[in-house]
Write a structure and sequence with these properties.
Layout lengths: L2 H29 L4 H20 L3 H20 L9 H23 L9 H15 L10 H4 L3 H8 L15 E7 L6 H12 L8 E4 L10 H7 L1 E5 L2 H13 L3 E8 L27 H7 L6 H5 L6 H22 L10 H24 L1 E3 L1 H18 L3 E6 L4 E3 H22 L4 H6 L6 E9 L3 E8 L6 H10 L11 H7 L21 H9 L4 E7 L3 E9 L4 E9 L2 E6 L3 E5 L6 E4 L3 E6 L2 E7 H4 L13 E7 L2 E7 L1 E9 L5 H4 L8 E6 L5 E5 L1 H9 L1
Parallel strand pairs: 6-8, 13-22, 17-19
Antiparallel strand pairs: 1-3, 1-4, 2-3, 5-7, 8-9, 9-11, 10-11, 12-13, 12-20, 14-18, 15-16, 16-17, 18-19, 21-22
Helix pairs in contact: 1-2, 1-4, 1-11, 1-15, 2-3, 2-7, 2-8, 3-5, 8-9, 13-14, 15-16, 16-20, 18-19
Amino acid sequence: MSNNDILDMYIYETNTLLEQLESIVLDAEKENTFSQDNVNEIFRIMHTIKGSSAMMEFDTLARVSHRIEDMFFLIREGTMSVVKDEDRPALFDVMLHSVDYFREEMEKVEAEQPLNEDVDSFLGNINSLIAKIKGEEIPAEPAPKEAAAPAPAQEAASAAPVPAQTTEGSAEFPYGLRVFFDEGCGMENLRAFMLVTSVQGFCADADFAYQPAGVESDASLSDTVIEHGFLLQFRSDADRARAVTIVMTAGSVHSYEEENFVPAPPPPVEPAPAQEAAPAAQKPPAAPAAQAAGGGAQQHQGQKESLISVGLSKLDQLSAIVGEIVITEAMVTGSPDLKGLHLDAFSKSARQLRKLTDELQDVSMSLRMIPVSNTFQKMNRIVRDMCKKLNKQVKLTLVGEDTEVDKTIVDSIGDPIMHMVRNSMDHGIEENVQDRIDAGKDPVGEILLSAQDTGSEVIIQISDDGAGVNDEAVLAKAIRNGIASPDVEYSHKEILNFLMAPGFSTNAQVTEFSGRGVGMDVVKSGVESLGGSVSITSEQGKGMTTIMRIPLTMAIMDGMEVSVGDSIFTIPINNIRSSIKTTEEAILHDSVNGEMVKMLDGYYPVIRARDFYNLPGGAEKIDDGVLMWLESGDCSYCLFVDELLGEQQIVVKPLPAYVNNFDIKNYGITGCSILGDGNISIILDAGDLYKATRG
């Protein structure tokens, strides 16, 4: 494993632990207390961050995490009763400040920037809390760096059991486990220390030892580990058995041997209070990286063994290869050389190949699918902080957190969702609680954030029960900004669309949260860049709702190929409701909506693809073509094409950048695909096509 791989593992593990820590603190703040399980979990998180930071020689991170660990050691020993009620808000604030601090430092680590060395003020706040918990006088100044915490290598050693100085066993710890790493794997001393950190997750420090000592800080011990192996020793055979499970799943382990140094174990030794760790029953064994990949310490060991973390670049490469396989399969089975030939064996093999490529595509896509829960959970912090700064009482309700979306899309929707939640907090929820009570509402406002998987797209909804949009105020501001005319009568929907205009804001003054005209247009452009759409609904006095419709994945999709003259278009299957043949007599001519056709219990406009795109050739009479009934969002209409060529799995290819300069999205074109015969098929966006024809 290279240094970069170890650094990536450290960043991934730390960020995962920080997300877990933030969630614990936010939930605890609502209850105004940490449960004993919370305290144990926070102690474990800070202990892990301290050890791994010391191993990576990030001194300040190790110092801060060490002091937080000390604080929660006191709380763990005395329970939350040692923290007075008046000190608990400060405790929650310090912990959330800690999360912010570590995240900022992780960003610097990723960007290869120097870390912040001035943490004395922050440590002073932690030390003040520790003094209050101990009932001591609050120190006037933060402790000097030399006294604040031991050096990183010393920290890790002080938190670990005191080992012997050789690789020979001792009778005090009769159950030994000697581990040998793969030849040439490199950094054997750090790999050994990662095993120690994993064992500390379930075994009290006083109940095991390791040899040689100092592997966390002395790279020269790698030679000793290579020659003699790395020895872990335990007081009980049960602890050794748990360690075997960890060693079996650890990376770069070549082999291991169990060694017994005396025939029977000595009487169990009561661990010292300062070295006590969480009970094994509460902390199943797991290596740090496995904990991160498995989503937390609550996962069972069997689940952890089956999970690995894979770089997104590798998944991108896999998706690209699968896409090319899909295109090649279509080229082979659709080759013009096969026309007119009756090849039963080939046709059977082609069907089997299609089945396998479909399964391969589904598997490769599922690898990229992750739940939106992490993105949703981050909004809890935003609501919490804004409630304090705006002096509002608001609760956030999350629905559909387990909905899975492509990793790339999840990474991209965070900002749009954040903007809308902040908008609801700042603009939506009333400032005066009495106004809500007078309107018959709950004094505590509510923001609902939900996600729903429809099979082909995810619908994300952000709604609040606030005051709603004041149409008159929005229209007046739009007129002042020059994006609306005072001589035109605008509908409620058109007024709402002004909110997403660039630079538009209804705030008269610039605040920390709004007034700069940046937000709603960012939401619109961000979602549209993913191939999605945004719509707003609002009722004054009742609240506002923003709906984002985003494709689950943007790589491969099922589409229906249709022809219009010599041109071929692809329409996403999820937008097609049905297709029919009809006659000219069935078409109605409306002075406002143009051609209309009756479908089931309603009348829908007809869009002629040939006329809209000015294509040569193609059917003119309704009798000679096919009507495709399409739906997208709140629009429903019929598209007139020549004929249906068949359903096909297609690989979505973006159009060249220079083509986008012609604003093709406003013509209902979202991309293209390569057909089996090598020709290009234009992919249509049903919603944008309808909007383009409505003008």
